[in-house]
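Weekly sync notes, structure subgroup
Attendees: PM, AL, DS (notes)

Item 1: joint prediction request from the bench team. They want all two components modeled as one assembly rather than separately. Inputs as received:
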Amino acid sequence: MLLAYVLKRLFWSIPFMFAVSLVAFALIQAPPGDFVTSLAATLAQSGDVVEQARLDALRERYGLDQPFLVQYWRWITGVLHGDFGQSFEWNQPVSDLIWERMGLSVVLAIATLLFTWAIAFPVGIYSAVKKYSIGDYIISAIGFIGLSIPNFLLGLVLMYIAVVHFGSDTSGLFSEQYQQAPWSWDKFIDLLKHLWIPVIILGTSSTASLIRIMRANLLDELHKPYVTTARAKGLSEWHLLVKYPVRLALNPFVSTIGWAFPQLVSGSVIISYVLSLPTAGPLLLQALLAQDMYLAGAFILLLCCLSVFGMIVSDILLAIIDPRIRYR
Amino acid sequence: MSSIASTTGNAADQASQWTLMWWAFRRHRLAVLGLMIVGLLYFIAAFVELLAPYDPDLSNARAVNHPPQALHFIKKEKDGGWSFQPYVIGMTQKRDPITLATTFTPDPTKTVDVQFFGKGEPTKLWGIFPVERRLIAPKVLGERFYLIGADRLGRDMLSRVLYGTRISMSIGLLGVLMSLVLDIFLGGLSGSYGGWIDATVQRIVEFKLAMPTIPIWLGLSAALPQDWPPTWRYFAITIILSLIGWTELARVVRGRFLALRTEDFVIAARLDGCSQMRVIFRHMLPSMVSHIIASVSLAIPMMIIAETSLSFLGLGLLPPTISWGVLLKEAQNVRTIAEAPWLFSPGVAVCLAVLALNFLGDGLRDAADPYAQEGR
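Output from the run, pasted for the record:
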């Protein structure tokens, strides 16, 4: 039964992925003009004479004069073979540019997700069990504020505090000596030292909403008869709480992989730009502004795929921990 | 005792749905506070020409990054007497001969008198009605004061933030209204017909939810031509925001339609021979208006944050349009904000607006179904 559900879910994701790739490609095709137009504009600005014949040759070489579907076909067949095309701006294959940055984006998102869980789980339980206590009110207030501050603003404020009060520059993910260095244990430690600031900034709003969800779910469960029964049987309060209601209230935690993880990956675009992290965000922005379409397209496609992937994982996990879902 | 109880009981029985909602809403202190702040912000957005002391584009080469000046109300005369005369203490600019950094120091001998409802530069309210009086203006026309500082071109931050209110608050409202039309149409279609229409719309909604919003926003806004006039860009960004933000409400509307479909009054209307359109618009829609309002007030802050983020990245609205996001773009790097922290003030405005709208929406959501609360 579980296997059938998983297979069905995986099967459904195929047309999904196809639609996603079509959207990603349409998006990078959308700007008026193409890369050659912006190249010509840049060259003309610096005073170079641009021959029409050379531009046409460039267009033909990259297939920019072909109809949309032909270009899409060329692109998607390449992508399936791991070839994302050529970045015009960097003059390098796209696949050389993206993987390390996408990897760091995913590391950042996973670290943030773990942070979110680690905070939201105990705080959500506390907030529900001690409903309307001072602690609950304080948590709710902080949660509301956390939800209301745009990510990048929080980033700027933290950077301001770090610079003015601690005199340290917090941007980037690595110290200078490790920036170009190959991966090593020391570099990893260095990464961890820098990672916590973007993690806090990125995780604040999802932590806040997860606490609210956890609290609401647990409150619904706490007044059910089985809790009263367990209490009447003399189970200790802690045992009773963790064994039954918390387990049921845990479902939203798993479904966060579905909504929070992709949100974290794509949300980190803005915050990475502010903190100048070497993740996918800044490069994507730059590529979009320069209409470097294969590079931008690869990022958008990968980010979309990560979202779909996150949803599948969370659906399957939910089906494993909650058998009711499989039969719907 | 019993008579009081029975009269209050009667009042609750006779009160209309909206009165009941108001009672439920009033119990939420924070929501009422949120309502007041939101009202104030939209008031500012509507009448900014009467409130801002200066033209937001009026620059001043001698007040680059001018720090904020506090407003004093009681002016002491030299002979020891005093009078009610609002004023600010002027500042003198000094340039460090070595680092060439400019510093401003307060100079108590120089004061700028300020007048409430005084005369400012003539301007036009909504571009139509000529107005001169401002809520707060220098007593002597042409003098400058900076209550929350000035930006790198010496433009008054207060005026700029106030003008930004108009664009930022309206783009949220307009974007939500646009997505509302789409939501009610698709949600209603899917909820009231069911069957394959429902299935198709639900697949579209699921697809939409699976797409990561931020890269799509960025891609769409990057696709806008850079040379469009500001108004076109404003509407294009609004449309992009509403295209991205619509799905949540479509689900709410669909759910309500599904729940209402089997209600007695809907069946009665259908048996009476009302057309499908009449059943939807005359009978079903009014009973979910309160839910829609609540969802809308929770969707507006999302739109405001989205616009601010886009403009902050330089992909949304562009100068000379003034929005909170465009203003925050000035505060992008650490060096600037360490030198002139008051460039953050648009950020304070964003937080205030979003927080107030969230409180308001929360209160509205609790009040949206007054009958359900009576039963609890």
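Discussion: Chain B has two domains: 49-155, 162-375.
Action: AL to compare against the crosslinking data before next sync.
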